[in-house]
Every structure is written in C-alpha cells, then in structure tokens.
Amino acid sequence: MNIKPIKNQKDHLEALSEIEELWDAKKNSPEYDKLDVLITLVDAYESKHYHIDDPDPIEALKSVMDDMNMKSVDLGNLIGGRSRATEILNRKRKLTLEMIRKINQSLGIPTDILVKEYQVKSSKKGTKKTPSVA
Questions:
Q1: Residues of the chain with pLDDT under 70
Q2: H/E segment holding residue 43
Q3: Does the model's pTM come out above 0.85?
C-alpha cells in the first residue's frame, strides 16, 4: 500500500482517481483498506481547503421547503400562522426559539443553522443585522 499525504491539488486529483478505481473493492481486502484510508485523507484535505459555510437560516428553510414542496401556509401551520410564516420568509420577523425547535423537529434542519444570525428587514428602509433568536 503506497499512500502519501495530500499536499496539493495534484495529489488530491490523484487520490480521487485512485478512489474511483478502488470503489468496488471487497470488504476486508487490502484494496478496501486502501480505499478507506484514501477516503479519510481526501475528506481531511477537502475539509481544510474547500470549507463550505453553513447556509443562512432563512435560505436553508426555503430550500428544505422547496425540496418538500411546502408552501408558506404549510410553514404557518407549523409555526403559528400563515402571516407569521410570510413574515419569517420575507425577513420581517426573527425566528423564535419555539419556532426553531418546531422547524428542527418537523423539517430536520439542524438547530446550529437555524440559530445563526441573519439579516432582518427593519421597519425603516434598509436592513439590520440581528440575532435570529428572540
């Protein structure tokens, strides 16, 4: 087994190519062990060099709603009314802790995403940055 650290993009691409070749390796074989190690190395490299930030809470909510073919009325039934849901989706109201809990339990959006700060439109022109938990 000739495995080396992934130090640059060339090493990364070579490791990905080797993973593709080993993908169908049988469990408990030397090839499978090599595949497992390579996947671990690639994961570590990608986590360090291709970090993706968590999404904005409202964008995450909209995305999950879209995936589940939900409308604002469906969200309203979950969090306490269609107008409240519309205000949340239009960033005119912050998510409350109770709403976050219900959304997490019903839609599976992680709470660490839902509690992130995000832009809420103020009653005046423009936006202000406020915490997402009331």
A1: 1, 123-134
A2: helix 30-49
A3: no
